[in-house]
Write a structure and sequence with these properties.
single chain; 10-stranded mixed β-sheet; binds zinc ion; Aminopeptidase; alpha/beta; 3-stranded antiparallel β-sheet
Length: 298
């Protein structure tokens, strides 16, 4: 039985400081164990946190594909290994679930990010969507982006809160993390004791790919997010609607055929990944019995 330990990771990105503060505040004011579930807290990337940067050598939240990274070593690769050795399912303090707390500079509000279609993740996401009405971004099938932290645990989700600037404390953002950390164990406890049922349907926004800024031959950005698009995360966009505005005042339009909902619009940290926004498509998934049985057998 490992469901009695949940790993809460903050500071996976060193310049996302609000979840780190939220965890400190939570630990001062609450019991670490409640409803027979113990929280284990860890700062993902302490050196990057100290320096106020996203990472030192590599993005820690892309370092958990251990097969791909076999033999590689740097601060974050080593840190990823250490986190799994300390709190992974085969460690001395095994946690069944990992919750990774992040902030975004994009205007996405509070959302859940899940990676792939694991039944246990669906169960946890459904619990949180049911309680808080949070949108879910389902990230899958992107060969350019792999090795996310929560994938190294049997069950895990990212909680992503925005918008907030990097290295900027915002008490409202802190509070949103506190509410989720506070209520998560209660919801799991209710599910265990048959006091709640999962909703019949889960609404997810499935990752379709990402689009880069328009760029000059030398790589410099040659167009910013269009004023009609900026801050419009989760809002549908159709063919022919504006995406970017270049230096000459020309509009660059969305040219795809399908209706999509962009997310992470203008996320600062993704400029280096050549991502101006990611495209998602809404999908309704019917809840399955196995979600709960697999989750509760963790
Ligand atoms: Zn982050």
């Amino acid at each position: 039985m490992t469901l009695n330990k949940i790993l809460i990771v903050s500071g996976t990105h060193g310049n996302e400081i609000n979840p780190v503060w939220a965890v400190k505040q939570f630990c001062k004011q609450n019991n670490i164990t409640k409803n027979n579930i113990e929280y284990k807290f860890i700062i993902g990337n302490p050196l990057a946190c100290k320096k106020g940067v996203r990472y030192i050598n590599s993005d820690l939240n892309r370092c958990f594909d251990f097969k791909k990274n076999l033999g590689k070593t740097n601060y974050e690769f080593d840190r990823a290994k250490l986190l799994v050795e300390k709190f992974g399912i085969r460690s001395s303090e095994p946690c069944a679930i990992a919750i990774d707390l992040h902030t975004t500079t994009a205007n996405m509000g509070t959302s859940i990010v899940m990676y792939g279609r694991r039944n246990k993740d669906f169960c946890l996401a459904a619990l949180l969507q049911n309680k808080f009405g949070l949108p879910i971004y389902l990230h899958e099938n992107d060969n350019n982006q792999k090795g996310f932290l929560v994938e190294a645990w049997p069950c895990g989700l990212v909680i992503e809160v925005g918008s907030v600037a990097q290295n900027f404390y915002d008490p409202n953002i802190v509070n949103r993390f506190l509410v989720i950390i506070n209520d998560l164990r209660d919801e799991i406890n209710k599910l265990k004791n048959n006091l709640i049922k999962l909703p019949k349907e889960l609404i997810v926004h499935v990752h379709q790919g990402s689009v880069d800024y328009p760029r000059e031959k030398n790589g410099c950005i040659n167009g910013i997010i269009h004023p009609e698009r900026i801050n419009q995360d989760w809002v549908h966009i159709k063919k022919g609607e504006p995406l970017f505005l270049d230096k000459n005042g020309n509009t660059i339009f969305y040219n795809g055929d399908s209706n999509i909902c962009p997310v992470f619009i203008g996320e600062v940290a993704y400029q280096e990944k050549n991502i101006a926004m990611s495209y998602t498509k809404k999908e309704v998934i019917f809840s399955a019995e196995e979600w709960v049985t697999e989750f509760l057998s963790l």
